[in-house]
């Protein structure tokens, strides 16, 4: 394997990430101009490489589409997918759960990222502990997943509750949803880090993308032992 990159001046594109890590390239769109993003995606499209873009604004997506790039944009998750190239396929299911409707953007980022990387994805939204019967109604299906991603703001109790009910790894994603004392996601982050339920891994605040990557790497590890 030869590691390569393409120098665009304003960006050095990792052209060998998929071969090196087994997962296609991802572009963090926030902070880039729409012209820079279009240039980056075009370079990957010319190489027939699938790419996922996260935190992509509607303005960026519209500019990219207007410049003839073959992309699929989702405004809820703010993800953009450059289609083409060899798709990754994983044998396994990821259940993405979130506490409330306000957590859906982060949960949907996780769901769409996991799907892009080849996992089967099941969504269970608005199943927070404030109405825990909603979670119990979906529990049989959640237990069938190979990995669970639990997304929650406020006090972030969902991940610990789920981890006490399933056999599989739980990846906790704190969100910045909540009133003042939640400190923009710090309170749920600390709750998740201090969970007394075992088997919980925690990613950064609002990091649905990172949770999905971890989930897919767990699935790849499971495949090696099949």
Uncertain spans: none
What's the CATH first level of the largest domain? Alpha Beta
Number of helices: 9
- End-to-end Cα distance, whole Å, is 26 Å
Instruction: Name the average pLDDT.
Output: 91
* Rounded radius of gyration (Å): 18 Å
What's the CATH topology label of the largest domain? Rossmann fold
Query: Main beta sheet: strand number and arrangement?
Result: 5 strands, parallel
CATH architecture of the largest domain: 3-Layer(aba) Sandwich
Counting structural domains, the number is 2
Beta fraction: 15-25%
What strand order characterises the main sheet?
Answer: 8-7-9-10-11
User: Pairing-aware structural class of the strands and helices?
Assistant: alpha/beta
Number of strands: 11
Description of the structure:
- It is built from nine helices and eleven strands.
- With 226 residues, it is of the alpha/beta class.
- It folds into two domains: 5-82, no CATH class; 93-224, Rossmann fold.
- A five-stranded parallel beta sheet has the order 8-7-9-10-11. A four-stranded mixed beta sheet has the order 3-4-6-5, sandwiched between helices.
- Helix 7 links the parallel strand 9 (147-152) and strand 10.
- The mean pLDDT is 91.
Reconstruct the topology from this structure.
Elements: E1 5-7, E2 12-14, H1 17-21, E3 25-28, H2 34-46, E4 51-54, H3 58-66, E5 71-74, E6 79-82, E7 93-98, H4 104-116, E8 120-124, H5 132-137, H6 139-143, E9 147-152, H7 158-163, E10 170-174, H8 186-193, E11 200-202, H9 208-224
């Amino acid at each position: 394997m030869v590691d390569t990159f393409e120098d665009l001046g304003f960006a050095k594109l990792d052209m060998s990430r998929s071969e090196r890590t087994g997962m296609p390239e991802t572009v963090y769109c926030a902070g880039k101009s729409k012209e820079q993003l279009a240039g980056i995606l075009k370079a990957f499209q010319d190489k027939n490489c699938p790419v996922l873009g996260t935190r992509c604004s509607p303005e960026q997506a519209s500019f990219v589409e207007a410049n003839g790039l073959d992309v699929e944009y989702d405004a809820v998750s703010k993800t953009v997918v450059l289609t083409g190239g060899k798709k990754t396929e994983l044998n396994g299911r990821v259940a993405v759960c979130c506490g409330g409707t306000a957590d859906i953007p982060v949960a949907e980022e996780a769901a769409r990222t996991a799907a892009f990387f080849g996992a089967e994805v099941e969504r269970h939204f608005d199943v927070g502990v404030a109405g825990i019967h909603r979670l119990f109604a979906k529990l049989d299906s959640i237990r069938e997943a190979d990995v669970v991603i639990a997304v929650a703001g406020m006090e972030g109790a969902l991940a610990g509750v789920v981890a006490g009910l399933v056999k599989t790894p739980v990846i906790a994603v704190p969100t910045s949803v909540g009133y003042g004392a939640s400190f923009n996601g710090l309170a749920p982050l600390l709750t998740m880090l201090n969970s007394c339920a075992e088997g919980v891994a925690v990613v950064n605040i609002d990091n649905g993308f990172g949770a999905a990557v971890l989930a897919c790497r767990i699935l790849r590890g499971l495949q090696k032992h099949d």
